[in-house]
Amino acid sequence: MHLRPLGTEDGVYAPAVMQVTGWRRVLHLLLLLAALGSGRAMGLRISWCLSVPSDDDYCLSWRVAVETNNIRGWRTVPGQCLRHVEGYMLGGQYRRDVGTVVDQIYQYARGVPFSGDGKDAWIMDVDDTCLSNLRYYQGKRFGGDPFDPVGFKAWAQMGICPALPAVLQVFNDLVAAGFKVFLLTGRDEETMGAPTTENLHNQGFLNYERLIMRGPAYKGKSAIVFKSDVRKQLVNQGYRIWGNVGDQWSDLLGDCVGDRTFKIPNPMYFVP
Ligand SMILES: [Mg+2]
To answer: Which of 266, 267, 271 is nearest to 128 (CA)?
Structure first.
């Protein structure tokens, strides 16, 4: 029987299921029944397992695809994955994954040829990198609800986001080592400047070089455009961006992204 190679039909990638139609499907079924019948006749015990992926299998694949930037532009966590994401965020795996990223930051930072001229820089994002919005997103079904700009702004203006402990630790160690750490956030400077600064200070983010927020010139522009422009300006000022840490790919793509980028996991929302 001739089977078309997978992925060749009309240029569309075929899923891992044989694309047989009509009489071919019937023939397959007959062959399968014949094989089973002859197996029984020979006294063989035939068993097979239909491999039907569970929601959790599906959601693990979904989450990996999100973290690797293979799924983009998604607006909400798929309905069948709400419990999976909740379990991931609260059950310890998220904390362990952040810890693994931070371990890699330490490992890399130890090998950076530090010059000591005051131009060795790091970039760190704020939301869900330095400060956690997990408590807010608990009320939004861990990303099951679409982004609510008014609700999020009200939350951010309260200035009560806790630090991600592992990120706070590495932030302090980078500052102590002499790196200039720039905090770069898409939060609106005009309306969220004061509470963001206060929140960062209250949580122990002190002695950073500069907190750079979105000004009026970048209103409505994507994070990639805004953050790329800021990083270009820093490079033009002579800074060497050694590391760049963020929970969104839009923190880590574009221009002058740095010598190494580090992705903090975030399966709750996507920022373009
Ligand atoms: Mg962020």
So the answer is: 266
